């Protein structure tokens, strides 16, 4: 019995002999048939086909965090009419800490811009990317204006954190600021902690009610471990005092084209959620306390969607801080 391979060989030999008798005719047809068969095998997913990999979608099908885009006025009203849990406390004090150029001062200006309905520059800012050093050198308190009065929360801006022991804000200075011991107007010295600029005792107005880390979304992956070490040191200090913490994640438009095109895609973007998780892993703050925003930077007018993200983050921070005000009040009444 003739095997299949022998049969195929005889068929090929026969065709080859015929092709030799008629050069360039049947052999050419045979080669063309083989070529078509090979192409068909590749098309049909044969052994020579290249697997096609699908690019995963950049967005979730639905927003994973609800955002009241059409309720800016309500958010603004709630913050303006906020009544603190302790009548003896006039202001909630929010301390901002973060790497040089993360946008601490810009966030303060952005909050003020929302309530002023125009772009403001209460806290002076600089293009830190050009110099690589912190523009903020003095410990200052910033009030948020509400017409001729001010709102019941203030921000304290500090010198930016940098890698190395002799660069950026001294971590002990920030620890003293967390405790409310650092005097207004203290000049930061990267190589030496404050000695003469510390208060001997504090009152309710001096105490920090919330520590907020400001982290740039497009830089979190490149931040030096030494900066995170300083942040964790500050976090431990704040945690030991029962001070709540949150993260403002800035420059969201720089990491996601979808968000740059339309800010309302922010909680649809997988890239943004990944960056929020990265911030959480690096600093220790849960994702539920991380808020992506876009600071005012190149705009000359305020915008609804930017305002809503800022107000939503601010409302969470202020209410969380007021919970601490309540706990401190309850604790003092029991003593």
From TrEMBL:
Ranges of Polar residues composition bias in the record: 46-55
InterPro entries given in the database record: P-loop_NTPase
Gene Ontology BP annotations: immune response
Segments for region (Disordered): 35-62
Coiled coil (UniProt feature): none
Species of origin: Cyprinus carpio (Common carp)
Identification of the protein by name: Interferon-induced protein 44-like
